[in-house]
Amino acid sequence: MDKSENRAENEQLKLSKYGDGSICGYNSLQHLLKENLKPHHFQEVNRLLTGLNCGKVLETIALPESATALSMEHGFDLQAFCFHADKEVLREPRVVRVGLIQNSIALPTTAHFIDQKKAIFEKVKPIVDAAGSSGVNILCLQEFWMMPFGFSTREKKWCEFAEPVDGESTEFLRSFALKYNMVIISPILERDMNHGEIIWNTAVVIGNHGNIIGIHRKNHVTRVGDFTESTYYMEGNTGHPVFETEFGKIAINICYGRHHPLNCLTFGLNGAEIVFNPCATVGGLTEAMWPIEARYAAITNSYFVAAINRVGTEIFPNPFTSGDGKPAHTDLGYFYGSSYVSAPDASCTPSLSRNSDGLLITDMDLNLCRQFKDKWCFRMTARYELYAETLAKYVKPDFEPQVIRDPLLHKRSS
């Protein structure tokens, strides 16, 4: 074993001994508050944190024993909730069951790449089975679920994990899609075999009949802190596609795209009812943003948002720097999980665990999307023509901001 492998293993041992990723010993903020507040205090705090769905606290769902048994056996967090919509006269409820999977990697990053991928497949399998046995219609995995997040190292060896759209990961998940009649969204590192084998950050949409419905490539590539992803792939070229499935119209807004309001808007303009946001983001960088952004996108665009984040700290063999003058390090920080779903009415689920693998299942009545379009009239009151006019000017080299300056701004007081 060489020095870099020793270093990685020592860092991993230190992490497991002194830091479990919990919040003061609790696996989520909700658990911390529930255990430390009086019940009536927690009820009010929780109302503000998760909102009310149709005027009521979000209901939990009873899941089959087969799913809970898998959760106990394999140690993953399992939670389930239900979003209602108001009863309509002319439309029946359109209830869709959605599942989100968050997970850590299964082997150290120093292990053989084939072994790493195989171990992740084995780890994810019982979680997918739990989703399938629970009757999930649409399942989404986290960003790059099939590999470690090695992109901050800027070492090109991680490109070996890239695969074609119809590659190993897709084949692995297609069997589950067929078995459980389930649409599966699989975010992978794609190798584009038709265009010089270039690399993309891609979500593959696998239909419930085992077919590939289509793909979406990440629109916005992160360039902040350790997230130097443009070393590996650039902005995608698939626009803002919405995939019409048997269970509803869905879109995938990959990771960093959640920070761009116009990106979120455009999926809505194309008719999305559920937008999945598979991510890989760490504490210290985005954790304060995390509970806000999916909720805001759901409210302003009248669709459901499912935000998924990976779990754990991934230690790499060779130190790398952030270009900020701080010492080199061998990890990006802690991937804090905390996956959740938000609805158009501002209600949201509690989050999954911050420090363990998990499956979040939600029933959502898609009628809620139109009901809140009608209630708030955001589409009707928006001024798209004004925004379009400004954007058309902004992208030109001779753009000048519309600023009216006070003529006395620089005049000295007498």
Automatic annotation (TrEMBL):
PANTHER family: BETA-UREIDOPROPIONASE (PTHR43674:SF2), NITRILASE C965.09-RELATED (PTHR43674). Pfam families: CN_hydrolase. Gene3D superfamilies: Carbon-nitrogen hydrolase (3.60.110.10). It catalyses: 3-(carbamoylamino)propanoate + H2O + 2 H(+) = beta-alanine + NH4(+) + CO2; 3-(carbamoylamino)-2-methylpropanoate + H2O + 2 H(+) = (R)-3-amino-2-methylpropanoate + NH4(+) + CO2. It is an enzyme of class 3 (hydrolase). Its EC number is 3.5.1.6. It comes from Medicago truncatula (Barrel medic). The keyword Magnesium does not apply. GO terms for molecular function: beta-ureidopropionase activity. Belongs to the carbon-nitrogen hydrolase superfamily. BUP family. InterPro entries: Aliph_Amidase/BUP, C-N_Hydrolase, C-N_Hydrolase_sf. This is Beta-ureidopropionase. Pathway: Amino-acid biosynthesis; beta-alanine biosynthesis. Residues 96-366 form the CN hydrolase domain. Keywords: Hydrolase. The keyword Hydrolase applies. One of its GO terms (biological process) is beta-alanine biosynthetic process via 3-ureidopropionate. It comes from the Eukaryota.
